[in-house]
Amino acid sequence: SDGLPPSYLMSTSHKAHCLILPFQGQSHINPMLQFSKRLQSKRVKITIALTKSFLKNMKELPTSVSIEAISDGYDDGGRDQAGSFVAYVTRFKEIGSDTLSQLIQKLANSGCPVNCIVYDPFLPWAVEVAKNFGLISAAFFTQNCAVDNIYYHAHKGVIKLPPTQDDEEILIPGFLSTIEASDVPTFVIVPEAERILEMLVNQFSNLDKVDWVLINSFYELEKQVIDYMSKIYPIKTIGPTIPSMYLDKRLHDDKEYGLSVFKPMTNECLNWLNHQPINSVVYVSFGSITNLEAEQMLELAWGLKNSNNNFLWVVRSTEESKLPKNVLEELKLTSGNNKGLVVSWCSQLQVLEHESTGCFLTHCGWNSTLEAISLGVPMVTMPQWADQPTNAKLVKDIWEIGVRAKQDEKGIVRREIIEECIKLVMEEEKGKLIRENAKKWKEMARNAVDEGGSSDKNIEEFVSKLVTIS
Ligand code: UDX
């Protein structure tokens, strides 16, 4: 509140210095930022390298870490300027390697030279930069271990896809059970996503050269697949990566979530939630980039209304035009027995933490899923693309903390299904186990990062190795 970083970050006697290189997108940067704060609390100096184009769009930067600019070769417009995702990644490799090296040289004269690069494996070239300078390197996977395991087996050519039928069962070594094609990350099965899949499997291309593989998950959540992957790579789970104030509360004042181009309507949401009964609200959000078809938006609107529960729905401004005005009006505050609030963005952690929130209707992006697990909120899942179907499978069948609202043959989840799923999770006897399991996992998530927990021990081990090798 006084503009200064929290006191635990003010230490000047650092044991080591980590340079953090995220992929430039809020869902990748934010988990790495949370991990950085944990490292800083253990007296590791942190510098986060962000591209000039990304920095330009940020109205506010985190005050808890030091930030330096590098270039992706598109300083004016970033990914939009590049035209295609693949063009962006290719040029970033070329220009990024040079500018990251210059930054390491600059920091060498800062009194605390860099010892280690923690990089997002979307940018595998960072390992070469680390090797050139004789630094330790650690890959930081922002997805969970089950998803990483699937990309690993795609990399090895073990998974033979696309499958011939939608419901064909696929056996993935290390995974908890066989899964259907509709549970596999879409990039693995959609032929048009071939170039993106190439980048995803490339994450493993030089992973045998790194000192650590850090995963944004926690051991108890994914024991079997973590044990399996640990035989191949030096894996350390370090999550959940959400601010300490929502979990173990060991880092004082640590509420800051991170970076976003969206501005949260925090007060409006909290005021409204404060006036709703306990566990009465369905919170609905599809994350920062996923777009729904107009037909799906309409089905969702009526599914929410017909469920007869209160709801708080995040409709990003770019999505708003898909909802007819009269429908929006009808959904809002005064309609029927239930009450709805539609906002363009909120502070999701505060909403999930709020006692009025009873369920989360989510696209199952990994950050959202992990946040719901950490705050004990049961889920109705409506996965759209990328890793979301796999996360939804884990939520429903492995952790048993939610249900999946199934699409029809046109790829749309109909209003009746949405209504049915919400009622099951919110109020029906059939959903009791789901609600109880959600509370159980909340406890386990907190324990993982609390003193002596599985993730805390891994972070301690990481820091002490860093100090020894340095
Ligand atoms: C993308 C991919 O879509 C997802 O599949 C992948 O797992 C991560 O990268 P995104 O769609 O943005 O991410 O979803 P998610 O990972 O869930 O991240 C969304 C973030 O935005 C969450 O941290 C959430 O707390 C935040 N959020 C969302 C808000 O703070 N306010 C909102 O109103 C909505």
Describe the structure.
The chain is of the alpha/beta class. The protein contains 18 helices and 15 strands. It has helices at 26-41, 52-57, 78-82, 85-108, 126-132, 145-155, 186-189, 194-202, 223-230, 266-274, 294-306, 325-331, 348-353, 366-375, 388-398, 415-426, 432-449, 454-469; strands spanning 16-21, 44-51, 66-70, 116-119, 136-141, 169-170, 179-180, 212-215, 235-237, 281-285, 310-314, 340-343, 357-362, 379-381, 402-404. It binds uridine-5'-diphosphate-xylopyranose (UDX). Residues 27, 30, 143, 285, 287-290, 314, 345-349, 365-368, 371, 386-388 line the site of uridine-5'-diphosphate-xylopyranose (UDX).
Q: What percentage of residues falls in helices of 4 or more residues?
A: 40-55%
Shape: globular
Q: Note the total helix count.
A: 18
Q: What fraction of residues sit in β-strands?
A: 5-15%
The pLDDT mean sits at 91
Sheet having the most strands: 7 strands, parallel
Lateral strand order in the biggest sheet: 3-2-1-4-5-8-9
| C-alpha termini separation | 36 Å
Compose a concise summary of this entry.
By secondary structure, the chain is of the alpha/beta class. The chain contains 18 helices and 15 strands.
Break the fold down into its secondary structure elements and pairings.
Layout: E1 16-21, H1 26-41, E2 44-51, H2 52-57, E3 66-70, H3 78-82, H4 85-108, E4 116-119, H5 126-132, E5 136-141, H6 145-155, E6 169-170, E7 179-180, H7 186-189, H8 194-202, E8 212-215, H9 223-230, E9 235-237, H10 266-274, E10 281-285, H11 294-306, E11 310-314, H12 325-331, E12 340-343, H13 348-353, E13 357-362, H14 366-375, E14 379-381, H15 388-398, E15 402-404, H16 415-426, H17 432-449, H18 454-469
Parallel strand pairs: 1-2, 1-4, 2-3, 4-5, 5-8, 8-9, 10-11, 10-13, 11-12, 13-14, 14-15
Antiparallel strand pairs: 6-7
Helix pairs in contact: 6-8, 11-16, 14-17
Uridine-5'-diphosphate-xylopyranose (UDX) is lined by residues 27, 30, 143, 285, 287-290, 314, 345-349, 365-368, 371, 386-388.
